[in-house]
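Board notes (copied after class):
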Amino acid sequence: MSHHCPALAFRASACALLGATAATAPTPYWPAALGTMGGALALAWYGHCEAVARPRDRADAQRERLADCALAADTTRGWAHLNTACCLRSWESRGAEHDTAHCTGQDRAA
């Protein structure tokens, strides 16, 4: 559920409570008007918080997707570099050492 719907619901409820406050204020039941006014303020604040949270969540999700893409590209590049090395020891030492048991000593990655 997006943050737009709850924010709109909170704000609509705040308006309804403000209407109840306006109707109750001139009557002898004015303490009830204070309660409905407090509820309206709380609902308006929750609506504001939900509306602010939506762009922040969207930005966080986009930042996470971009980080995953960069990590996948780095991993793919790393595996390609490892596969072009003539042996694991050569890859670890950047071509300075070679595994004499399995390697011809010619590093294709360097």
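Comment from the instructor: The mean pLDDT is 75. The helical segments are 4-24, 30-84, 88-92.
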